[in-house]
Amino acid sequence: MKNYVKLFLVTAMAVMLVALTACSSNNGGSDNAANATNSADTADTANAGGEADAGDAANAPSDEPKPELKRLGIWQNEDYNTYPVAKMLEEKTGYKVKYDMLPQDKYAEKQNLIMSSGEPYDLVTTFSDMAIYSDYAQKGALVDLLPLIDKYGPNIKTAISQQSMDALKVDGKLYAIPTAVTYEVNNSILIRTDWLDKLGLQMPTTTDELTAVLKAFKDKDPGGNGDQDVPLTIRGDLPMLDNIVGAFGMPNTWNDVDGQLVPRVLDPAYKDYITYMSDLYKQGLLDKEFVVNKDATAKEKFSSGKAGAIIVHWADIPTISDAITKSVPDAKFAFVPALKGPAGKAGFAANAGFDRLTFIPKASKHPEDAIKWINASLDPETFKDLAIGEEGKHYTEENGAYMPILPIFNDERNLANNYMAGTDETNYPIYWQARVHKSPVMFEAFDFLNNKQPAEVKIQNKLGLAPYMPEYAKNNQQLETMVGDYTIKLIAGAESLSGLEAFQAKYKAAGEEASAKEINAWYATTTK
Amino acid sequence: MRGKKIGDYALDSVIYICLTLMGLATLLPFANVLSKSISEEWAIVAGKVGIIPVGFQLDTMRFVVTSSQFLHALFISALVAVIGTLASLLVTAMTAYPLSKRELPGTGALIVLFIFTMMFNGGIIPNYLLIRQLDLINNLGSLILPALVSVFNMLVVKSYFESLPPSLEESAKLEGARNYTILFRIILPLSGPVLATIGLFYAVYYWNDYFNPMLYINSSSLKPLQLYLQDIVMNADTSSALSADDLMNVPAEGVRSATVIASTIPILLVYPFLQKYFIKGVLIGSVKG
Hints:
The complex is a heterodimer of chains A (528) and B (289).
Chain A: H1 2-58, E1 69-73, H2 84-93, E2 97-101, H3 107-116, E3 123-127, H4 130-138, H5 146-152, H6 154-159, H7 162-167, E4 169-170, E5 173-174, E6 176-180, E7 187-192, H8 193-198, H9 207-220, E8 230-233, H10 244-247, E9 254-257, E10 260-263, H11 270-282, H12 295-303, E11 307-313, H13 317-327, E12 333-335, E13 348-350, E14 354-359, H14 367-377, H15 380-388, E15 395-398, E16 401-404, H16 408-413, H17 428-436, H18 440-452, E17 458-460, H19 470-492, H20 500-527
Parallel strand pairs in A: 1-2, 1-3, 8-11, 13-17
Antiparallel strand pairs in A: 3-14, 4-5, 6-14, 7-11, 7-12, 9-10, 15-16
Chain B: H1 6-25, H2 28-37, H3 41-45, H4 59-65, H5 68-99, H6 107-119, H7 124-133, H8 141-144, H9 151-163, H10 166-174, H11 179-190, H12 192-208, H13 211-216, H14 225-234, H15 244-249, H16 253-283
Helix pairs in contact in B: 2-16, 4-16, 5-9, 5-12, 5-14, 9-12, 10-11, 12-16, 14-16
């Protein structure tokens, strides 16, 4: 036994020694490696300059064989390499691209792993996350694109607006090509219009009318479900109800109050919103079980005809419509327009900013070719083909609107947005509506929210185009969770508004103060 | 069971009925997924599908099992499981055999080193860097090599080898057999039970492994079934972060359920035949002869 203990100690020490030396030599190694890459980088840029000069001198597209590019994309349900778009792009750009994709779950971890290990991808397209993006940029993991764009990217310059480029600059340099969002309004209250008709009610236009309508839904049982009716159902993790929260003047997470951006919980209107919502809850007009509702539970209640109203994204409409017309054949529904609150305010949160970012990692072996590829993909004709396909085959044009030809559009262009590295910012929102036209019910809902609502109720999220702000990026998510949990408790009556000041103090200390300082310093520069 | 009274029978049947019901209750979630996979999508969304399918149809199932990605992932999983299990068995046995010879110098120290790796390891990033340096990223080797020897399984095999009578080897040596001959012609044929058991452990490990492929495989043509399944199923929970384009392309609940069912079937088919080894395996090596 004694022998064993001794043996173990000796081995343990030996192992530790080995580990220590390994660690120190490792450090040295990585330093050397870093130096090596640095010098390699300078060599590369020198080379690049040389090549470019040669190219300029020849003043012709070089005939040398184009290298195969490696691109990393986000997860999609089909293999990037075999999806028809890949072949089309290969033919049009002349570049063969080998696509890999991130997993659906924990994509950020995997992406960090790939970026930090220096995997030689030429293009990485991922969700727009300013915190991650600027982290990479500041750590020197990305290639500065401005000089490359100047040299090889005339199409990029015309396609991407200066505003978008400015929003992505980190220390004056641009490291990513953005894919801008294509529409403004996401969600509203979807209401059963056949219930309204049955009760002889009008579509509500103010929050008071909404209360009255929900009350009638509860008392008069238009659905014939007895006391099982749920007037308004929502999912438990979104206590800031789109449209209603806008009626209290707080459509976005940070709203302009007297020239300063203020988060909802510090907004003077927050109290009024909570009073209104908890009143709905107390009267049984808001789903009693909303706290435990998941997305699917809420949709289930609406689709089975038990709920009179629900808050959903317009893109969810086809699924819901299909389900509800089968289970309740005479059901009709429509989005509620922007409701006016007690103070006369109304509004939807309007998207601003980016959907995806594409960048070129330092580890890329062909940064110039990557930019050339992006440039080629943004050639107006190529981009149109990428977005909606060929006329007559994938789409038809009707009165300036593009209508998809089904099912080939679904089979060959549904996932096309994953292949984009930047978009033609003037035309893409129009092309893109072809996707919404895939389902007439969906288009109607989309059209109502985005095209038919007056511009003044679409209140842009000011922070959508804000540059990277370290404090805000660091604290935002945690602060949002704090407010979300607190708001749910307030609405459900587990907390009372008398504790609001204490919470606000805690909230400020948890990082709001630092974020607000940063945000408003930037905001002051934009409103000048 | 002579001497039992009627009361005993009554009690027994109550117990049996309770146990049966509890056993069946564990099947409920599975039954729910199964019935979703063969129901119409609208009924699933409206929450009408419990255990009994509503609007029976097999199109979703057919769509899933004929999808080339699914079949490909199934093939990759089977390939990794078969090759991995065979390689693991071979290497484990060849590691365990010399370590089972107490009279060899240094075996104790080696075993301590092996056990050390059970408790400590480098962590994800060093492992990833190692695999990258070995040029195994996007290579099926990255799914097999890191799991080639499980120390626990190796120790089980080692103690089994130790329980074999040493006189067997001595007589073989007298006949002029060398070490390899002894291992492959005498020891391994006698180790059927333990090899079957740890082979099963390895096979289940390789089949179920999703973590290694998640880290090391980026190419969609090399994704094993578990990763494919995870990608499809996880889709549901992230919907709040998705843009409209992604929302429009989310696979339907029915497709997700059908994928879960389809990927469970292969292991379900094999399980009943292998279960006895699992139970046996727990006992192997626990009593030294």
